Amino acid sequence: MKGKWLALLCLLPFTLFYLAFQIAPLIWIVVNSFWSDSMEAWGLGNYQDILTSPFYQQAITSSLKISILSSLYGLIIALIGGYSLHQIGNGKLQRIIMSFTNMTSNFAGVPLAFAFIILLGLNGCITLLLRKYGLLGDFRLYSIDGMILVYTWFQIPLGLLLLFPAFDGLKKDWEEASALLGASRIRYWLHIGLPVLSPALIGTFVILLANALGAYATIYALTSGNFNVVPVRIAALVSGDISLDPNMGSALAMLLVVLMSAITVIQQWIQRRSYLNAR
């Protein structure tokens, strides 16, 4: 009993920290999102303005497009990379790659933006090389396609770290047995491999989506806040000099919370119905 109380006492600083920096700000955001500065009244005015404004609709659409596509691309590349790493076995090469992946998973924000500006900016070294040989086309780093490329880059290491342990659930005997029964590798993956990995794939996709929806530093450093996505709009509303309206920013933040909560609920429902959790 004494050890239990000691453990609870040790958790007290963490609990206070969590309440101060997670629960209290969330309550503040929820309450203030219903106060409209323009109407000077409580209600759904902020949400109505957001959902009827083409400017905010564009921010939401751009955020969803960048987040969904970068998460999907990152998941596919991480799936291929995780399988390849699993196939080479527990050797020195695997440890080196996983260490490098762990390091690059933290390579985001301003350093990542600076790296892409040097490589693919208007006068980046790769941009000049591709332009010289006429291979650049209409690609611009500061367009939505460029943002998807940047986001995909920092999604890949995180996706690989999350997916790689799931491949331990694939038994080599299953692949050998399916081959003996005449199944091709494609049929093996469609009927065995992907169903077994589906909970990990869905969970990883949701985490990558949340990671992309909340990303701020990278896109702000690349575009100086001139790209219309939800995190940039929230920052402008909370700390901007011209469009200062923290209550509207709170409403935008709550829309993100509701969106991610809905996605998480759907993910949990799909996982319960997945092959791995079927009774």
Features:
279 residues, mainly alpha, MetI-like fold, two-stranded antiparallel ribbon, 12 helices, globular
Structure description:
The protein is an all-alpha fold. The protein has one domain (43-272): MetI-like (MetI-like fold). 75% of the residues lie in helices and 1% in strands. The protein contains twelve helices and two strands, in the order H-E-E-H-H-H-H-H-H-H-H-H-H-H. The protein has helices spanning 2-32, 45-52, 54-88, 92-104, 110-120, 125-132, 144-163, 172-180, 185-213, 217-223, 230-239, 246-272; strands spanning 35-36, 41-42. It has a two-stranded antiparallel sheet with strand order 1-2. Helix 5 packs across helix 10 (217-223), helix 7 (144-163) crosses helix 9 (185-213) and helix 9 runs antiparallel to helix 12. The longest helix has 35 residues, at 54-88. The protein is globular and about 70 Å long. The mean pLDDT is 84.
